[in-house]
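During the reporting period the student researcher (J.K.) took over the structure-prediction task from the postdoctoral fellow and processed the backlog of single-chain submissions. One of the processed entries is reproduced below for the supervisory committee.
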Amino acid sequence: MAEENTEAPPAAAVTLTGPDIARAFVAAVRKVPHVQQVLLDDPEQVRHVWTVISAPPFEDQYRMPVYEAELEALEQTGYPPIDFRLINTQELATDPALVLPSSYHTVFRR
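J.K. obtained the following structure tokens:
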């Protein structure tokens, strides 16, 4: 029988609202010049965040600042269960409007 680890501290409860993660992420990602748009599924209960960039195709150097902004926002808000998506319009063979969820809310547009 496995022994219970009584030395581990209990998980800290984090109270956070959807707008917290959205504000933190947009504040960080708006500094990235190739970010064109940020969309949320629900501004009050954020579960999914889509970031749209326009950059040379398949170049990680343009994606990394977005990933860093995601991490920064997560660190500031206690790592809520958020699904980040990143699409590069220059990697699409179709109109981005056909790929992006039409019901999402735009919270940043360049």
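The committee noted the following: The mean pLDDT is 84.
J.K. will present the remaining backlog at the next meeting.
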